[in-house]
Task: inverse folding
């Protein structure tokens, strides 16, 4: 540090090295007003992403449009409202009783291969921003590779493992769920995707493959779709998923994800 | 005299669970009281329960759980003698009595089991938890001295999503400039490998030794990774591990008591402390046993206290509950997080642990930074040994919000608390504190602002 350098210069030098909230300055020992309100804005956006009510018909329309007319069913998990959903993950893993006959009516003989499931999870913003785009890239490729698809199921207030219930009612060999991840301060709209071979109640997470951090500044939706297609095809071929199925899709040309930004 | 017929006592696990202040994790486990009245009735029954009953009725069977065996085998009947005849309610009153000072509490520590202190906490008001904990100082030493009256230390937590050394150094410098880092400079690595641990441990060692900073470093990998690194000659100050209150939950973390003993011996063998030999760092948090499906029908706060029995067997330098990290299914909102933080600090201190707290929350919990301000303030009044210092309170690797360097300075300022004495003197010596002990702007006399890893960033 040369003698003419100011604390602000040092702060800028620190910020070049990390996205963490370094070099914020201080008044006394406390945060300057702008830094205090920047943080509060980030937290407000993360909370809004979580608390935002899902417009299920609009999302269903967007998914149908992006997939050139795939049928979309909307059902509820066993969690009756957001407050219950947040403290009872077990309910988010189950379906409301009313949902079972709706799905049973869709079971075909022989059953379809794959159930595509969408849920807002912990970020409504994430599914609104990215779910239709991921499916828009993924569905045509799946059809081209010979996958027979069940109707897309939109589960309000679902957790990852609800894919096991949906998949087992539909009788499919594979299930894939796209859902909003826990919102971070810098990334309120990050989408996660989990796939499982033989979706059955009682599956552990060790049986699932995860593709996470899907958002504009993370793994972009087209690249996420490529990775999911690779995983699904590999899982179909080897009849396994989870820890037994190593993700080698990075052998594909995928644009590297940028680190998340904090503001 | 003859005995009137009385109702059979409620089994202890059920009684403790029913008496627990409301929290989502106990509801999720299906052990919580179903009404407010039932909860308080249970607290009344618990208040009348003799402390000695906790020695006779283990919550988890002695035969199948090494934590239970540790608790009962290490119980000291001589230390217990002064309180042996008390009920839980009388024990609360004994703790609050003017005549009961820190030394008297310390004298009975080895006679207390985690179940006894958990039971007392359940019938206590928040102010009781604060008052009693404030009497009991627990002092530990490695390269500096933590826990003395009038001090509050800070763990500097400079995490980075990809373990980039330059990013980590930037966060460390930021914290040092704000007077943080006396408890430990502790990195949660994104990658838990010996190689990664070596790179980060050497980085910390170079920084601490190179600039003569009276503090200690830690890279919070798995304990097995740290043992392997020590065997490979990597300089490691403190050995870290997350622990829980049952053998099965610890197994889900990949640890057992024998492994922790091995880790402690490995750390001691390095002989890196200059003022003391407390070498272990443990983290805990309510809900970890339920999360691991290893809760045995016991409430999460009692299980948390049992984790402290594990910790105290290894003379740790640092122990902190990570109170709001695990999510709203265990602690739903700011009120539950605040209560749990006070309970954990109280129980840990009574059992003789150098308790700190990661005052924190996630974005899907009904909490915000104002709730953290409240808990931080109450814990500091209660005499907490240390809190976390995360740049801007925003951990960009673990994606949760904790307390910041600024937060720590706020509470030091309000309560007149000082950093650990050795670190305090160093801050003054390098020009970061003025004669009144206030933060000064960095000057060009600061050697560590010329750190090579930062220098080439310019």
Result:
């Amino acid at each position: 540090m040369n003698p003419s350098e100011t604390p602000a210069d040092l702060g800028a030098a620190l910020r070049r090295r990390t996205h963490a909230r370094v070099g914020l300055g201080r008044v006394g020992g406390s945060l300057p007003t702008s830094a205090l309100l920047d943080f509060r804005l980030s937290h407000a956006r993360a909370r809004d992403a979580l608390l935002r009510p899902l417009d299920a018909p609009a999302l269903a329309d967007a998914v149908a449009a992006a997939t050139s007319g795939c049928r979309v069913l909307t059902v509820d998990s066993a969690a009756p409202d957001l407050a219950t959903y947040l403290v009872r993950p077990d309910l988010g893993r189950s379906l409301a009783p009313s949902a079972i006959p709706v799905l049973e009516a869709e079971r075909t003989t022989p059953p379809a291969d794959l159930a595509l499931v969408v849920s807002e999870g912990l970020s409504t913003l994430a599914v609104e921003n990215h779910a239709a785009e991921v499916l828009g890239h993924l569905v045509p490729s799946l059809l081209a590779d010979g996958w027979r698809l069940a109707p897309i199921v939109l589960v309000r207030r679902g957790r990852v493992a609800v894919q096991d219930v949906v998949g087992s009612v539909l009788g499919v060999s594979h299930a894939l769920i796209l859902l909003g991840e826990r919102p971070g301060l810098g990334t309120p709209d990050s989408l996660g995707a989990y796939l499982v071979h033989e979706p059955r109640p009682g599956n552990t997470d060790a049986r699932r493959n995860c593709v996470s951090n899907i958002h504009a500044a993370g793994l972009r939706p087209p690249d996420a779709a490529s990775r999911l297609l690779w995983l699904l095809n590999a899982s179909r071929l080897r009849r396994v998923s989870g820890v037994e199925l190593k993700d080698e899709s990075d052998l594909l040309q995928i644009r590297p994800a940028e680190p998340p930004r904090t503001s | 005299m003859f005995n009137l017929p009385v109702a059979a006592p409620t089994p202890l696990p059920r009684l403790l669970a029913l008496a627990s202040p409301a929290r989502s994790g106990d509801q999720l486990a299906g052990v919580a009281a179903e009404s407010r009245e039932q909860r308080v009735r249970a607290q009344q029954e618990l208040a009348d329960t003799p402390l000695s009953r906790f020695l006779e009725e283990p919550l988890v069977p002695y035969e199948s759980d090494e934590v239970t065996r540790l608790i009962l085998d290490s119980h000291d009947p001589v230390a217990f003698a002064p309180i042996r005849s008390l009920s839980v309610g009388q024990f609360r009153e004994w703790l609050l009595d003017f005549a009961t000072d820190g030394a008297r509490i310390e004298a009975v520590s080895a006679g207390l089991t985690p179940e006894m202190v958990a039971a007392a906490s359940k019938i206590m008001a928040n102010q009781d938890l604060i008052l009693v904990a404030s009497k009991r100082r627990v002092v530990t030493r490695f390269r500096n001295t933590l826990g003395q009256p009038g001090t509050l230390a800070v763990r500097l937590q400079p995490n980075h999503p990809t373990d980039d050394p330059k990013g980590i150094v930037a966060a460390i410098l930021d914290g040092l400039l704000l007077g943080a880092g006396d408890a430990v400079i502790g990195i949660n690595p994104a990658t838990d490998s010996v190689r990664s641990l070596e790179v980060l441990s050497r980085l910390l060692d170079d920084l601490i030794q190179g600039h003569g900073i009276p503090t200690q470093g830690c890279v919070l990998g798995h304990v097995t990774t740290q043992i392997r690194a020590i065997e490979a000659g990597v300089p490691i100050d403190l050995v870290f591990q997350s622990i829980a209150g049952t053998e099965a939950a610890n197994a889900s973390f990949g640890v057992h008591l024998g492994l922790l003993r091995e880790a402690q011996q490995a750390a001691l063998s390095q002989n890196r402390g200059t003022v003391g030999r407390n070498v272990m760092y443990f983290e805990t948090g309510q809900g970890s046993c339920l999360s691991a499906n290893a809760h045995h029908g016991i409430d999460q706060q009692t299980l948390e206290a049992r984790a402290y029995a594990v910790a105290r067997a290894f003379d740790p330098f640092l122990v902190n509950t990570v109170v709001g990290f695990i999510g709203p299914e265990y602690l739903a909102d700011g009120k539950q997080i605040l209560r749990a933080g006070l309970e954990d600090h109280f129980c840990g201190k009574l059992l003789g642990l150098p308790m700190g707290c990661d005052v924190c929350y996630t974005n899907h919990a009904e909490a915000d930074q104002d709730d953290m301000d409240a808990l931080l303030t109450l814990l500091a009044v209660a005499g907490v040994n240390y809190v976390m210092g995360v740049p801007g309170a925003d951990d960009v690797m673990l994606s949760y919000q904790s307390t910041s360097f600024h937060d720590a300075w706020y509470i030091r300022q309000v309560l007149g608390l000082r950093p650990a004495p050795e670190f305090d003197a160093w801050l003054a010596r390098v020009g970061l504190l003025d004669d009144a002990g206030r933060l000064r702007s960095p000057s060009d006399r600061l050697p560590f602002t010329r750190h090579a890893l930062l220098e080439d960033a310019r």
